[in-house]
Design a protein that fits this description.
6-stranded mixed beta sheet; alpha/beta; 5-stranded mixed beta sheet; 9 helices; binds 1-O-pyrophosphono-5-O-phosphono-alpha-D-ribofuranose
Length: 213
């Protein structure tokens, strides 16, 4: 039988995803010791895993080359796409926030404000909803630098523990939305491999509840 192919987000979500896999009895050693190998068979070849950057997880699922994926809601909101969101896995919890330098009054004055972010679509949607016209600058990493360098008036970014903001003298002025890891599926796979996917999802969901207890 063809393995179920899963695309997992590497980095931040990786450890908790593996914890979930191990909880349902899947030996993740081949994944931990993968070296430079890119497609890793697990669970006696019943599953094949790819570790990918988060936007690529969506690309693989949308194009039907992977059946299931684990990706953050941040990437889902930013990239969009056509796939089925099965469930909230409960880990990778953080928030999209609007943040600025302590003591600066972001909403003061009529000048058009500049926002730095790794998530321009999320930021645009947020400010459209506020009916506020802003200029958005896309930054690839360490967005917190932008207000410190006076490149931007504020940032829209992910806040998890809040320590990056704190250590750089920034504060949250608005919470935009909650983020956590989501299990997503290719829509055709859901129909064609219904039983296998449902079984795996059932096990993952059960493990999730046990881990969260
Ligand atoms: C994210 C985010 C913040 C930080 C927030 O960046 O963009 O910089 O984590 O976490 P905290 O609230 O726990 O401090 P990431 O570590 O993914 O790296 P990057 O800035 O290089 O993109």
């Amino acid at each position: 039988m063809k393995p179920i192919r899963m695309a997992l987000t590497k980095g931040r979500l990786e450890k908790d995803t593996l914890k979930l896999f191990e909880k349902i009895g899947i030996d993740c050693e081949p994944l931990k010791n993968k070296g430079r190998k890119l497609i890793i068979p697990l669970d006696n070849n019943k599953i094949e895993v790819i570790l990918a950057k988060s936007p690529d997880v969506i690309t693989y699922i949308e194009n039907g080359v992977c059946d299931l994926g684990v990706v953050g809601r941040d990437t889902i909101l930013e990239k969009g796409g056509s796939f089925y969101e099965i469930s909230d896995l409960g880990f990778g919890r953080c928030k999209f926030c609007l943040a600025t330098k302590k003591d600066s009054d972001f909403f003061k004055g009529h000048r058009k404000k500049t926002i730095a972010t790794k998530y321009p679509n999320v930021a645009r949607n947020y400010f459209d909803k506020q009916d506020m016209d802003v200029r958005i600058i896309k930054i690839e990493g360490s967005v917190e630098l932008a207000p410190l360098l006076d490149l931007a008036d504020a940032i829209v970014d992910i806040v998890e523990t809040g320590s990056t903001l704190k250590e750089n003298g920034l504060v949250v002025i608005k919470e935009v939305t909650d983020v956590s890891a989501r299990l997503i599926a290719n829509t055709a796979s859901l129909k064609l491999r219904k039983q296998e996917i449902e079984d795996l999802v059932y096990r993952l969901e059960k493990a999730k509840e046990e881990l969260n207890d």
